[in-house]
Amino acid sequence: MSMVSLHWLGSKLMAGKDSRGQSLVMGTWEELDPPWMGLKPSDLLLLSVASCSSWDVVSILTKQREPLEGLETTCTGEQRPDPPNVFTSVHLHFRVEGAVSPQKLERAIQLSVEKYCSVVNSLDPSIPVTTDYEIIE
Q: In the sheet where 129-136 sits, what is the strand order?
């Protein structure tokens, strides 16, 4: 079981702590001069999707002994303009460095999105999650 905690700091600023004790700040305190800014909660969801899926891809390619030298993942999400501003689509772009097999990379991404990534698989099934990649040798 995982457990996180959240502490309201004032205004719309909050500090979160994960199940391992790591902290991050979310939201804003616009009334201060200069205002304090933290991560946007909806961006945290996209970061969670990107990190979870990237972890899977790295793990799968490493087990296959692919020559992975680097990975940068970009995650974009479209949201409805009106509250609750739900995501209507999510896209993952993987920028892979190394002479990685395109077929093995495609399969690793597919396995992550369809089977292993708990964050992606916790999203509403009506939200399409698309992917693409580029390999830089």
A: 70-79, 87-97, 129-136
Q: Give yes or no for a contact between 10 and 23, defined as CB atoms under 8 angstroms apart.
A: no
SS3 52: helix
Structural domains of the chain sorted by starting position, each given as residue range(s) with its CATH number in brackets: 5-37 (no CATH), 41-136 (3.30.300.20)
Ramachandran angles phi, psi of 84, nearest 5°: -90, 20
In order along its 137 residues, the chain shows pLDDT tens digits of 889 999 999 999 999 999 999 999 999 999 988 988 999 999 999 999 999 999 999 999 999 999 999 999 999 999 999 999 999 999 999 999 999 999 999 999 999 999 999 999 999 999 999 999 999 98
Q: How many CB atoms lie within 10 A of CB 100?
A: 22
Candidates 46, 48, 68; CA nearest to 57 is 68
Alpha carbon separation from 130 to 13, 49, 88, 113, 127 (Å, rounded): 32, 12, 12, 9, 10
pTM of the predicted model as reported, rounded to 2 decimal places: 0.91
How far apart (Å, rounded) are the C-alpha atoms in residues 20 and 18?
Answer: 5
